[in-house]
Amino acid sequence: MAPVRALPREERELMIAANNGHLLAFDNLSGLPAWLSDALCRLASGGSFAVRQLYTDDEEVLFKAARPTLLNGIEDIIGRSDLADRAILLTLGPIGEEQRRSETELWREFELARPAILGALLDAAAHGLRAVGSVHLGRLPRMADFALWATACETGLWPANTFTRAYAANRKAAIEGIIDADPIAACVREFMSERPSWTGSAADLLRVSVQRSSDCIPRDGTGWPKNPRVLAGHLRRAQTFLRALGIEIAFSREGRAGSRVIRMRSFPENTVSTVSSVSDSGSGADSEQQP
Known about the structure:
This protein is α/β, with parallel strands linked by helices. Among the domains are: 4-77, no CATH class; 177-266, Alpha-Beta Complex (Aspartate Aminotransferase, domain 1), CATH 3.90.1150. It has 10 helices and 10 strands. Strand 3 and strand 4 (60-65) form a beta hairpin. Helix 4 crosses helix 5 (144-154) and helix 8 crosses helix 9 (228-244). The longest helix is centred in the middle third of the chain and has 29 residues, at 103-131. 23% of the residues are buried.
Protein backbone atom coordinates (compact mmCIF):
# COMPACT_ATOMS: atom_id res chain seq x y z
CA MET A 1 0.00 0.00 0.00
CA ALA A 2 1.47 3.34 -1.04
CA PRO A 3 1.83 5.88 1.77
CA VAL A 4 -0.22 9.02 1.19
CA ARG A 5 2.08 12.02 1.10
CA ALA A 6 2.15 15.75 0.49
CA LEU A 7 3.23 17.16 -2.86
CA PRO A 8 6.98 17.31 -3.47
CA ARG A 9 8.67 20.70 -3.46
CA GLU A 10 10.85 19.94 -6.47
CA GLU A 11 11.24 17.37 -9.24
CA ARG A 12 14.18 15.74 -7.47
CA GLU A 13 11.94 14.81 -4.52
CA LEU A 14 9.35 13.38 -6.91
CA MET A 15 11.87 11.13 -8.65
CA ILE A 16 13.37 9.95 -5.35
CA ALA A 17 9.87 9.00 -4.17
CA ALA A 18 9.23 7.19 -7.46
CA ASN A 19 12.45 5.21 -7.10
CA ASN A 20 11.39 4.09 -3.63
CA GLY A 21 7.88 2.90 -4.43
CA HIS A 22 5.77 1.37 -7.18
CA LEU A 23 2.84 3.76 -6.67
CA LEU A 24 2.72 7.41 -5.61
CA ALA A 25 -0.33 8.81 -3.81
CA PHE A 26 -0.95 12.50 -3.07
CA ASP A 27 -4.00 13.49 -1.03
CA ASN A 28 -6.07 16.59 -0.27
CA LEU A 29 -4.83 18.63 -3.23
CA SER A 30 -6.19 21.97 -4.40
CA GLY A 31 -4.17 22.18 -7.61
CA LEU A 32 -0.85 21.45 -9.27
CA PRO A 33 1.95 23.88 -10.12
CA ALA A 34 2.96 23.89 -13.79
CA TRP A 35 6.36 22.26 -13.18
CA LEU A 36 4.76 19.36 -11.28
CA SER A 37 2.14 18.82 -13.97
CA ASP A 38 4.94 18.50 -16.54
CA ALA A 39 6.94 16.20 -14.25
CA LEU A 40 3.94 13.90 -13.73
CA CYS A 41 3.52 13.70 -17.51
CA ARG A 42 7.09 12.44 -17.79
CA LEU A 43 6.62 10.05 -14.89
CA ALA A 44 3.49 8.55 -16.47
CA SER A 45 5.38 7.25 -19.50
CA GLY A 46 8.90 7.13 -18.10
CA GLY A 47 11.31 9.92 -17.27
CA SER A 48 14.62 10.60 -15.59
CA PHE A 49 16.25 13.25 -13.44
CA ALA A 50 20.00 13.71 -13.08
CA VAL A 51 21.86 15.38 -10.21
CA ARG A 52 25.56 15.72 -9.48
CA GLN A 53 26.84 12.96 -7.25
CA LEU A 54 27.94 14.20 -3.85
CA TYR A 55 31.64 14.89 -3.35
CA THR A 56 32.34 14.74 -7.10
CA ASP A 57 32.70 17.32 -9.85
CA ASP A 58 31.81 15.36 -12.98
CA GLU A 59 29.72 12.35 -11.94
CA GLU A 60 25.93 12.12 -12.00
CA VAL A 61 23.27 10.16 -10.20
CA LEU A 62 20.39 9.34 -12.53
CA PHE A 63 16.90 8.78 -11.13
CA LYS A 64 14.76 7.00 -13.72
CA ALA A 65 11.20 5.77 -13.26
CA ALA A 66 7.77 5.21 -14.79
CA ARG A 67 5.08 5.08 -12.13
CA PRO A 68 1.31 5.33 -11.76
CA THR A 69 0.23 8.21 -9.54
CA LEU A 70 -2.93 8.83 -7.50
CA LEU A 71 -4.08 12.44 -7.11
CA ASN A 72 -6.99 13.17 -4.79
CA GLY A 73 -8.80 16.40 -4.06
CA ILE A 74 -12.21 18.04 -3.87
CA GLU A 75 -11.65 20.51 -6.70
CA ASP A 76 -10.56 19.78 -10.27
CA ILE A 77 -6.86 19.18 -9.72
CA ILE A 78 -5.62 18.80 -13.28
CA GLY A 79 -5.69 22.01 -15.25
CA ARG A 80 -3.40 21.16 -18.18
CA SER A 81 -4.53 19.18 -21.19
CA ASP A 82 -1.32 17.14 -21.57
CA LEU A 83 -1.63 15.70 -18.05
CA ALA A 84 -5.40 15.23 -18.38
CA ASP A 85 -4.81 13.18 -21.55
CA ARG A 86 -2.61 10.83 -19.52
CA ALA A 87 -5.09 10.49 -16.66
CA ILE A 88 -8.24 8.59 -15.75
CA LEU A 89 -10.61 10.94 -13.94
CA LEU A 90 -12.99 9.61 -11.30
CA THR A 91 -15.63 11.67 -9.51
CA LEU A 92 -16.90 10.01 -6.35
CA GLY A 93 -20.02 10.96 -4.46
CA PRO A 94 -19.83 12.20 -0.87
CA ILE A 95 -20.01 9.60 1.89
CA GLY A 96 -22.96 10.17 4.19
CA GLU A 97 -22.48 10.00 7.93
CA GLU A 98 -24.60 6.85 8.15
CA GLN A 99 -22.34 5.17 5.55
CA ARG A 100 -18.99 5.94 7.15
CA ARG A 101 -16.97 3.18 8.76
CA SER A 102 -14.00 3.11 11.04
CA GLU A 103 -10.58 2.38 9.59
CA THR A 104 -10.43 -0.87 11.54
CA GLU A 105 -13.69 -2.09 10.05
CA LEU A 106 -12.69 -0.99 6.55
CA TRP A 107 -9.38 -2.85 6.63
CA ARG A 108 -11.00 -5.94 8.12
CA GLU A 109 -13.43 -6.13 5.20
CA PHE A 110 -10.65 -5.44 2.74
CA GLU A 111 -8.53 -8.29 4.11
CA LEU A 112 -11.48 -10.65 3.66
CA ALA A 113 -11.93 -9.53 0.05
CA ARG A 114 -8.23 -9.29 -0.83
CA PRO A 115 -7.72 -12.91 -1.99
CA ALA A 116 -10.61 -12.63 -4.46
CA ILE A 117 -9.41 -9.22 -5.69
CA LEU A 118 -5.85 -10.46 -6.17
CA GLY A 119 -7.07 -13.60 -7.91
CA ALA A 120 -9.21 -11.61 -10.33
CA LEU A 121 -6.30 -9.28 -11.14
CA LEU A 122 -3.96 -12.22 -11.74
CA ASP A 123 -6.55 -13.91 -13.97
CA ALA A 124 -6.87 -10.69 -15.98
CA ALA A 125 -3.08 -10.34 -16.26
CA ALA A 126 -2.69 -13.96 -17.40
CA HIS A 127 -5.41 -13.43 -19.98
CA GLY A 128 -3.73 -10.23 -21.13
CA LEU A 129 -0.38 -11.97 -21.63
CA ARG A 130 -2.06 -14.48 -23.93
CA ALA A 131 -4.06 -11.89 -25.88
CA VAL A 132 -1.81 -8.84 -26.09
CA GLY A 133 -0.12 -9.96 -29.31
CA SER A 134 -3.43 -10.05 -31.16
CA VAL A 135 -4.92 -6.75 -29.98
CA HIS A 136 -5.64 -4.15 -32.65
CA LEU A 137 -6.91 -0.63 -31.98
CA GLY A 138 -8.40 1.51 -34.71
CA ARG A 139 -6.76 4.58 -33.16
CA LEU A 140 -4.13 4.78 -30.47
CA PRO A 141 -4.58 7.33 -27.67
CA ARG A 142 -1.63 9.13 -26.12
CA MET A 143 -1.20 6.33 -23.54
CA ALA A 144 -0.97 3.76 -26.33
CA ASP A 145 0.73 0.91 -24.45
CA PHE A 146 -1.67 1.26 -21.54
CA ALA A 147 -4.66 1.09 -23.89
CA LEU A 148 -3.28 -1.99 -25.67
CA TRP A 149 -2.57 -3.82 -22.41
CA ALA A 150 -5.92 -2.95 -20.82
CA THR A 151 -7.74 -4.03 -23.99
CA ALA A 152 -5.89 -7.35 -23.92
CA CYS A 153 -6.89 -7.92 -20.29
CA GLU A 154 -10.50 -6.75 -20.51
CA THR A 155 -12.01 -9.90 -22.03
CA GLY A 156 -10.72 -11.86 -19.06
CA LEU A 157 -13.18 -9.88 -16.92
CA TRP A 158 -15.78 -8.22 -19.16
CA PRO A 159 -17.19 -8.40 -22.70
CA ALA A 160 -15.03 -7.04 -25.51
CA ASN A 161 -14.89 -3.23 -25.89
CA THR A 162 -16.00 -2.61 -22.28
CA PHE A 163 -12.72 -0.90 -21.44
CA THR A 164 -12.53 0.84 -24.82
CA ARG A 165 -15.93 2.48 -24.38
CA ALA A 166 -15.28 3.43 -20.76
CA TYR A 167 -11.84 4.89 -21.54
CA ALA A 168 -13.17 6.85 -24.52
CA ALA A 169 -16.01 8.26 -22.40
CA ASN A 170 -13.57 9.21 -19.64
CA ARG A 171 -11.24 10.97 -22.09
CA LYS A 172 -14.19 12.82 -23.63
CA ALA A 173 -15.30 14.04 -20.20
CA ALA A 174 -11.73 15.13 -19.44
CA ILE A 175 -11.56 17.03 -22.73
CA GLU A 176 -14.80 18.87 -22.08
CA GLY A 177 -13.76 19.73 -18.54
CA ILE A 178 -10.37 21.09 -19.58
CA ILE A 179 -11.82 23.06 -22.50
CA ASP A 180 -14.50 24.61 -20.29
CA ALA A 181 -11.87 25.62 -17.74
CA ASP A 182 -9.49 27.00 -20.38
CA PRO A 183 -10.64 30.42 -21.63
CA ILE A 184 -8.36 30.30 -24.68
CA ALA A 185 -9.46 26.86 -25.84
CA ALA A 186 -13.11 27.73 -25.15
CA CYS A 187 -12.74 30.92 -27.18
CA VAL A 188 -11.17 29.03 -30.10
CA ARG A 189 -14.00 26.49 -30.02
CA GLU A 190 -16.60 29.27 -30.11
CA PHE A 191 -14.67 31.14 -32.81
CA MET A 192 -14.38 28.07 -35.07
CA SER A 193 -18.03 27.10 -34.61
CA GLU A 194 -18.87 30.00 -36.95
CA ARG A 195 -16.47 29.17 -39.80
CA PRO A 196 -14.91 26.14 -41.51
CA SER A 197 -11.35 27.49 -41.44
CA TRP A 198 -9.15 30.40 -40.43
CA THR A 199 -5.58 31.40 -41.31
CA GLY A 200 -3.45 34.12 -39.77
CA SER A 201 -0.72 34.90 -37.30
CA ALA A 202 -0.88 34.58 -33.53
CA ALA A 203 -1.08 38.38 -33.38
CA ASP A 204 -4.09 38.30 -35.73
CA LEU A 205 -5.83 35.68 -33.61
CA LEU A 206 -5.13 37.57 -30.40
CA ARG A 207 -6.51 40.77 -31.92
CA VAL A 208 -9.61 39.05 -33.34
CA SER A 209 -10.41 37.24 -30.10
CA VAL A 210 -10.20 40.49 -28.13
CA GLN A 211 -12.30 42.45 -30.63
CA ARG A 212 -15.04 39.95 -31.39
CA SER A 213 -16.26 39.14 -27.90
CA SER A 214 -15.43 40.06 -24.36
CA ASP A 215 -17.20 36.88 -23.18
CA CYS A 216 -14.08 34.84 -23.96
CA ILE A 217 -11.85 36.92 -21.74
CA PRO A 218 -12.12 36.75 -17.95
CA ARG A 219 -12.97 40.09 -16.37
CA ASP A 220 -9.71 40.20 -14.46
CA GLY A 221 -7.70 38.92 -17.43
CA THR A 222 -6.56 35.84 -15.51
CA GLY A 223 -5.26 33.12 -17.80
CA TRP A 224 -5.45 35.27 -20.91
CA PRO A 225 -2.20 35.70 -22.90
CA LYS A 226 -0.70 39.14 -22.99
CA ASN A 227 1.24 38.63 -26.23
CA PRO A 228 1.07 36.47 -29.42
CA ARG A 229 3.96 34.19 -28.40
CA VAL A 230 2.18 33.10 -25.23
CA LEU A 231 -1.05 32.57 -27.18
CA ALA A 232 0.71 30.35 -29.73
CA GLY A 233 2.31 28.30 -26.96
CA HIS A 234 -1.03 27.82 -25.27
CA LEU A 235 -2.62 26.69 -28.54
CA ARG A 236 0.12 24.10 -29.01
CA ARG A 237 -0.65 22.71 -25.57
CA ALA A 238 -4.39 22.59 -26.31
CA GLN A 239 -3.92 21.10 -29.80
CA THR A 240 -4.67 17.50 -28.85
CA PHE A 241 -7.93 18.21 -27.06
CA LEU A 242 -9.17 20.71 -29.65
CA ARG A 243 -8.50 18.11 -32.36
CA ALA A 244 -10.69 15.66 -30.47
CA LEU A 245 -13.46 18.26 -30.60
CA GLY A 246 -13.11 18.63 -34.35
CA ILE A 247 -10.69 21.57 -34.58
CA GLU A 248 -7.38 20.96 -36.34
CA ILE A 249 -4.59 23.48 -35.65
CA ALA A 250 -1.39 23.57 -37.70
CA PHE A 251 1.66 25.81 -37.30
CA SER A 252 3.99 26.65 -40.18
CA ARG A 253 6.38 29.24 -41.59
CA GLU A 254 5.61 30.81 -44.94
CA GLY A 255 7.19 33.26 -47.35
CA ARG A 256 10.78 34.33 -47.68
CA ALA A 257 10.67 35.97 -44.29
CA GLY A 258 9.49 32.74 -42.68
CA SER A 259 6.44 34.35 -41.12
CA ARG A 260 4.72 32.19 -38.53
CA VAL A 261 1.24 31.17 -39.64
CA ILE A 262 -1.54 29.40 -37.76
CA ARG A 263 -4.11 27.43 -39.74
CA MET A 264 -7.29 26.19 -38.10
CA ARG A 265 -10.05 24.14 -39.67
CA SER A 266 -13.18 22.45 -38.40
CA PHE A 267 -14.04 18.87 -39.25
CA PRO A 268 -16.78 16.52 -38.00
CA GLU A 269 -14.57 13.59 -37.03
CA ASN A 270 -14.19 12.81 -33.33
CA THR A 271 -10.81 11.20 -32.66
CA VAL A 272 -11.49 10.22 -29.05
CA SER A 273 -13.25 6.94 -29.80
CA THR A 274 -11.38 3.79 -30.75
CA VAL A 275 -12.39 0.38 -32.03
CA SER A 276 -10.60 -2.64 -30.62
CA SER A 277 -10.49 -6.28 -31.54
CA VAL A 278 -8.82 -9.39 -30.19
CA SER A 279 -8.39 -12.33 -32.51
CA ASP A 280 -9.67 -15.73 -31.44
CA SER A 281 -6.15 -17.09 -31.18
CA GLY A 282 -5.31 -14.62 -28.42
CA SER A 283 -8.55 -14.58 -26.49
CA GLY A 284 -8.41 -18.13 -25.19
CA ALA A 285 -11.23 -20.41 -24.15
CA ASP A 286 -11.92 -18.50 -20.98
CA SER A 287 -12.77 -15.25 -22.81
CA GLU A 288 -16.48 -15.96 -22.35
CA GLN A 289 -16.23 -16.14 -18.57
CA GLN A 290 -17.71 -13.31 -16.56
CA PRO A 291 -16.59 -12.25 -13.09
